[in-house]
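User: Can you predict the 3D structure for this chain?
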Amino acid sequence: MAGSEAAWQAAQAGCPVVIHEMRPQQGTFAHQTGNLAEMVCSNSFRSDDSEQNAVGLLHWEMRQAGGIIMQTADEYRLPAGGALAVDRDPFAEAVTARLHAHPLIEVESGEITALPEDGQWIIATGPLTSAGLGAAIATETGADALAFFDAIAPIVYADSIDMDQAWMQSRYDKGETEEEQKAYLNCPMTKEQYEAFIDALLASDKTEFHEGETAGYFDGCLPIEVMAERGRETLRHGPMKPVGLTNAHKPEEKAYAVVQLRRDNKLGTLYNIVGFQTKMKYGAQTEVLRMIPGLQDARFARLGGIHRNTFINSPRLLDDRMRLKSRPNIRFAGQITGVEGYVESAAMGLLAGRMAAAEIAGRDLPPPPPETALGALVTHITGGADAKTFQPMNVNFGLFPPVDGLKGGRRGRKDRYKAYTDRAKALWSDWLATQEVERA
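Assistant: Here is the predicted structure, written as structure tokens:
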């Protein structure tokens, strides 16, 4: 995702680009194709609200910058109740086709296993950096790469879901159209069913880690078993919360917990179980997940899985132009830098691509203001975070400098978020306009 965006931005600035992609010759645990920008975990780019949500603001900034990821996502979007979800396979195929068709972009197949000595390079290897390149990075930086584990949610065939028990509704009927307001499929649970589900979840067979590996999960992508181990009610206050939903079959009954599924392709034949990343072994997954009312006869297009996610200590290793301090001809972008999520990863690619192209053209491109979404992210990973405790981070308003004169707390949140996004949009537009003037 980040490499695709970086290549596009650099090429659009007039810089010839070569993309080195090891797939399909060298596969990974999570990828299924050789397409660029393949989505492996979820098909959602999360909230598209650019006035009240930091990730929605990031969408807006990337659209203003002509980002290929956002352009293509908009073309292949699916109803998702206010979120930006896409038809994942056509999305990746379209990004791949556009990059191949660009006159200044060349795509070469094959694995890179050493840090290049010459030329301008961007390493955007994502969460599944190959062992060879990972070892080269560790050797150069003098420290082992940090790592946590990402878990993948299962995908269910729609025609195997019992719609006599499940119903279609977005939480709080969110969305401007009926299709948006019914973008999620809901499976209700009674207290007894929930308790039995938790018991089975805790007792299930789970993936074992190799010797020397530890599971330092990112809190935004916790496996459901890890959440359940933190307390029996944790899931009911997380992905299984029953609020904002009314059972269409039994409107008078309040569900104790609700499992939501979101459409995973345009045809509506596949649904992924929202927030249900899991490290259960395959046999245990089918047994436990079929305890969910409505999924008792579920057939799975893909079961969940778990994979190692490697990232570098960016606050210590990178400068504010995203260059490796020890080798300034190399930039890093994407999830390997310690941002979390598709959008954040692509955003760092957008920034790295523009910065590299500017440097090649003899110009210095400073990072965007920290009051913008991209600026807040890059400021965080290149120095705003404490290097000793650095962990992956989603974009959020906690990374933004405060707006003077606004009250804190939940009561003033709506006005505060609007002030953040208004300020960011103005500053981002100015940052982009300055580059256009310099290019001219």
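The first helix runs from residue 2 to 12. The chain has a mean pLDDT of 91.
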